[in-house]
Amino acid sequence: MIELISLIAKSLVKQPDAVSVTMVQKGNTEVYELHVAPEDMGKVIGKQGRIAKAIRAVVKAAAIKENKKISVDIV
């Protein structure tokens, strides 16, 4: 799942080397924290959060196949 999130984020930003994804376990939910460069934050979030919602939708669809509960936070 980390590879999927980082692949999507790296294709959106100008500084792909600054992209990092960490996983934190909270109860039975896996929380993935996406870190990007400050100047690339707008590209990952998008207008009215549309790109962020799309990233979360793709990751949740992949999580359903693995029968997991997943959340994506953009830090």
Automatic annotation (TrEMBL):
It is found in: Cytoplasm. Keywords: Cell shape, Cell wall biogenesis/degradation, Chaperone, Cytoplasm, RNA-binding. The keyword Cytoplasm applies. Transmembrane segments: none annotated. It comes from the Bacteria. Its main location: cytoplasm. InterPro entries: KH_dom-like_a/b, KH_sf_prok-type, KhpA. A probable RNA chaperone. Forms a complex with KhpB which binds to cellular RNA and controls its expression. Plays a role in peptidoglycan (PG) homeostasis and cell length regulation. Belongs to the KhpA RNA-binding protein family. Forms a complex with KhpB. This is RNA-binding protein KhpA.
